[in-house]
Amino acid sequence: MLIEFKQKSQVTIPKKMVDKLNLKRGDLIDISEVEGKLLLVPVATVPMDQMWFYSPEWQIGEKEVSKQLKEGKVHTSETIEKLFKDLGIDNL
Fold it and tell me: Is 78 contained in some domain?
């Protein structure tokens, strides 16, 4: 797909691609040069106080929990007391 390089070094991303990538006005796009080609990558910023969620350790845990949920390895309790008893924990 060809697009025109315009005044002030601007280009227009075709609507079909904008829609497919769900891009919105104000979204951030990282641009880099790779072997003589321009690479545009949509990015999202995350507040520092939420970065823990994206740590490799946390993501490993998230995958394990998802696996256990899919396998039906889920236990429920009617009360906190029953939950502690089922887990073998003294009521705090």
Answer: yes
DSSP annotation string for 23-74: --TT-EEEEEEETTEEEEEEE----GGGGGGGSHHHHHHHHHHHHHHHTT--
Which domain covers residue 53, as residue numbers?
48-87
**64 and 82 share a domain?**
yes
The model's pTM: 0.54
The domain tally of the chain equals 2
10-residue mean pLDDT series, the chain (92 residues): 93 95 95 96 94 95 96 90 87 64
Distance CA 27, CA 38 (A): 18
Question: 58-75 burial, b for 16+ CB within 10 Å, e for fewer?
Answer: eeeeeeeeeeeeeeeeee
